[in-house]
Design a protein that fits this description.
The protein folds into two domains: 3-79, Ubiquitin-like (UB roll) (Roll); 88-155, DNA polymerase, domain 1 (Orthogonal Bundle). Helix content is 32%, strand content 17%. The chain contains five helices and five strands. Helix 2 packs across helix 5 (142-155). The longest helix is centred in the last third of the chain and has 14 residues, at 105-118.
Length: 158
């Protein structure tokens, strides 16, 4: 099968890769780019573990073909921190112990960033609704929501 040449910006860097027509963006990120933070939990877009931002829009990378990335700007969990400086969401997840096994954490963090990019002052209900597509078997969600709300306040300067 012929491979498709794709040029995209991934985590701020212009990147080129080859992929076949059936290869998901999740597989490209993990297998071709070595960006293993995004996880495959379901392969059907139901769990959110593979969440990435594509041109600022939250996307399940298991539902996107790699070839669809042509010309896009993609951010993965690896692109959230600024070098050694954690993103405020990442720091608040640590402070609030909003992670346990960590499998869902990258997707939840990316989805939380998408929320705060769109709405820097969400209500708790809005945060819970926004993150409903991210499944976690360990935390019970309360600590995740507390961390998101705390990060939102900090990012607003409160």
């Amino acid at each position: 099968m012929a491979k498709t040449h794709v040029t995209a910006t991934i985590n701020g860097e212009e990147t080129e890769f080859l992929c076949d027509g059936q290869q998901t963006m999740l597989d490209v990120l993990r297998d071709e780019m070595g960006l293993t933070g995004s996880k495959e939990g379901c392969g059907s877009g139901d769990c959110g573990a593979c969440s990435i931002l594509v041109d600022g829009r939250l996307v399940c990378s298991c539902l996107m073909f790699g070839a669809e990335a042509e010309g896009t700007d993609i951010m993965t969990i690896e692109g959230m921190a600024d070098g050694d400086k954690l993103h405020p969401l990442q720091q608040k997840f640590l402070e609030h112990a909003a992670l346990q096994c960590g499998f869902c954490t990258p997707g939840v963090l990316v989805a939380s960033k998408a929320l705060l990019d769109k709405n820097p002052n969400p209500t708790e209900e809005e945060a819970r609704y926004w993150l409903a597509g991210n499944l976690c078997r360990c935390t019970g969600y309360d600590k995740i929501i507390e961390a998101v709300m705390d990060a939102a306040a900090e990012m607003r300067g409160e």
